[in-house]
């Protein structure tokens, strides 16, 4: 069956939805109005009185409801449905032991009955905390159902975007969504990303043998998206090859806030119950979890696999490493020509002479690449830290791939970092390299750097970061419109996919690229309001930078079409993994909820319980870097990582920029160590974070099976191999049961509402 992008047109949606959408997105532009419209996303933390008033109003509404016969009937019906759920309605598509399902859901469904769940054989035994009684107490049935419907709709939208792009979507959530539609979930329907397995020992990672043939397709960019045509004739007729081409209008509608807004007090946002639930779980089961871990032979925190899921290649070494490297090159290659300026050849010695510096005297202090107090809330100052000794020449020589020495020094530094990872064996990294979209040759040059210097390492996978700096290129007249930028970034990839024979180096390099990132300071404002009325990329000729959502949609659209084309050819696919929620508007997190496989930072989820709950339900992975945040946007003690972990969000730890933030050789371990010390994380906690990092990484299916266990795609204890992950089965069961509970409430609320409307 051809994969199509289901289009929605504006005429199909309400006027009210449209107005609401415009209001929220407009408010993003003007900070003073933000409070009003954005309050729907956020919780008024600073105003307990207001919060109390809201709750009181809700209670009055609920009391009034009691006098309505119809509501009472619905509430009763709703409760009855829920009780039926245990025996009859638990999604049959869930391939789980019904007895186990009983034990999970029973206590919550039969308030008043003695809590004595029977523990199935294969589920670990531990002390379960149950909450009995009316789950939607404190709000009206109508509000509860409305909120559940909204959340479900948002999950359906994310599922649609994930499936189309070969992004991951958790099994459990998918199973509950099918059950809400009264359908059966099939394992064959599951869509997974396709990553190239790591070449085996003795295999040449750069081999150009067996490269697929030319398809003779034609390509053309239209509305900022590359379209594929079977031949020149089809291009003339404008009949594209059958692939799911997304459109801006549908995206703008799917993005409208009515799918993501529901005020926290009248929605089953159990952020607090999730938080305190874990607190109790930990209190009661900490020793049992530890006991489990003590019984695992050979495995401990040091030898579980960890992936640094967010690290920029240009800062992947620490400051001491860079310093030593500079000194070594000066000692051994001082007379080497390393720069060309205005036709003049400049040697390394001359570079340091003009800087009036002797590398021997350099210290990490004079190198001055470390971030500190002075960079907090100053992204501009942070960016200049990429220049050693404040000299852009040194950045050019040591940290670039396309300089006079063809990026040799940079490749050598990266290979030294890779070597250390290989030595440590259990650590992996996914360095991010830049493609700017200035010219179409960037890919060629990056790929040939990669192959010429043999940069591949079994412990590294590559991510391409695209900085959001169209405005800079436009002002320098390097590109005429936004579409040109997109074309420079994506067309070479489509060409290499259609005709790898002509683009051998790019084809080989792409085997080790697993994803894309969109990167820049999120707190920068855009003066444009993103909506269905936004100009097409070809028409975007102004000097202003497009807003975050606009960038995200167009990157997603091209990656998605490209993935479908590559899948057709049996080639590996890419994940979209943007920086998101580090700063700036909360709407960024909505855009990424649709378009991203996983995100980096996610700090702003702190401000929105609704979005946080959605990220939890969809288990959207978040690569968090508290040490980086501490130097830039948020003090360490205020970092929400621990809270997110406790609630069950899929978080991992990453370094971001070891050059700027870390002190030791093992930057990732430093990150884990500080988090563990400061937040008193248990071994099970740190191993759970490590497991999350492997799950969300771009490592291949084969590697994940090897590192996590053969059944890692299954959720819960069945998918966990404790001998490999060192995560207690009790923890896995707790997480899975909690997620099933939350999802079952939502599904039942939606089903109950559907059946009661049918009765009417
Ligand atoms: Zn970053």
Automatic annotation (TrEMBL):
Protein's organism: Salmo trutta (Brown trout)
SUPFAM superfamilies in alphabetical order: Metallo-dependent hydrolases
NCBIfam families for this protein: AMP_deaminase (TIGR01429)
Top-level lineage group: Eukaryota
EC number: 3.5.4.6
Gene Ontology terms describing biological process: AMP metabolic process; energy homeostasis; IMP salvage
Family in the record: Belongs to the metallo-dependent hydrolases superfamily. Adenosine and AMP deaminases family.
Catalysed reactions, as listed in the record: AMP + H2O + H(+) = IMP + NH4(+)
InterPro entries: A/AMP_deam_AS, AMPD, Metal_Hydrolase
One GO term describing the cellular component: cytosol
Function, in words: AMP deaminase plays a critical role in energy metabolism. Catalyzes the deamination of AMP to IMP and plays an important role in the purine nucleotide cycle.
Keywords: Hydrolase, Metal-binding, Nucleotide metabolism, Zinc
Gene Ontology molecular function: AMP deaminase activity; metal ion binding
Name under which the protein is recorded: AMP deaminase
Signal peptide: none
Keyword Hydrolase appears in the UniProt entry: yes
Organism placement in taxonomy: Eukaryota, Metazoa, Chordata, Craniata, Vertebrata
Pathway: Purine metabolism; IMP biosynthesis via salvage pathway; IMP from AMP: step 1/1
Pfam hit, one: AMP_deaminase
Cofactor: Zn(2+)
